[in-house]
Write a structure and sequence with these properties.
This protein has a four-stranded antiparallel β-sheet with strand order 3-4-5-6. A two-stranded antiparallel ribbon has the order 1-2. By secondary structure, it is an alpha+beta fold. The chain has two domains: about 80 residues, no CATH class; about 80 residues, no CATH class. α2 runs antiparallel to α5.
Length: about 200
């Protein structure tokens, strides 16, 4: 909703009614001015933080490219986690890219191949292992499987070609649905430990 400026000598109340300032208590006017001033400064600070964030990501990306060019390499895009440390080791800047992933329909093919393996395998722990597999593919209330548990299956090296094909299907089924970028700042304390430089008002 577009904000309109009240006529001179009036204030708009929370119901949208114009009220003459002469009819408003002094404490209410003082409160209104205080809140408006604080919010004005907060909005300005938010804008500065947004500009700082954009500039910081651009500066990091430019430096990564500059560093790569020292070896004749060209890096495209801004993907990848990067840690930059000052020469004296006092400060550290970390850029992190967190991908949110899901599996597409190829995960079902992987599950079928794995089930076929356990149908034929006869070693003593086959049933126990099948239970673990079924738990791994269990969906949550939103219908999604645990990405971490499914990907952890690739640690197991079985010689059955169907198992190997299932692991390929799992890898191919990974789909990045969103990415979120973070930048964090650290300063080393007297004990040599890096402590975060927080920009969160609840922490500072």
């Amino acid at each position: 909703m577009q904000q309109t400026t009240p006529p001179a000598g009036f204030r708009e109340n929370r119901n949208g009614h114009l009220v003459p300032e002469s009819q408003i208590k002094a404490i209410d006017l003082a409160r209104d001015e205080l809140v408006s001033e604080i919010i004005k400064r907060a909005v300005e600070l938010r804008q500065q933080l947004q500009e700082f964030k954009v500039a910081t990501f651009n500066d990091i990306a430019a430096f990564v490219q500059l560093s790569a060019e020292q070896y004749g390499a060209t890096i495209g895009g801004t993907k990848g986690n990067v840690t930059l440390i000052s020469y004296d080791g006092r400060y550290k800047v970390v850029r992190a890219i967190q991908d949110k992933i899901q599996f597409d329909e190829r995960l079902q093919a992987a599950k079928k191949l794995i089930d076929a393996c356990f149908d034929d395998w006869t070693f003593a722990a086959a049933e126990e292992a099948r239970t673990v597999i079924n738990d791994t593919f269990q969906v949550d209330k939103d219908g999604n499987v645990s990405v971490g548990r499914v990907l952890s299956l690739r640690r197991y090296q079985f010689n059955d070609p169907r198992w190997k094909q299932a692991m390929v299907a799992i890898a191919d089924a990974v789909t990045v649905i969103a990415s979120k970028s973070y930048v964090r700042f650290y300063e080393r304390d007297d004990r040599g430990m890096y402590q975060p430089i927080s920009l969160d008002m609840a922490v500072v």
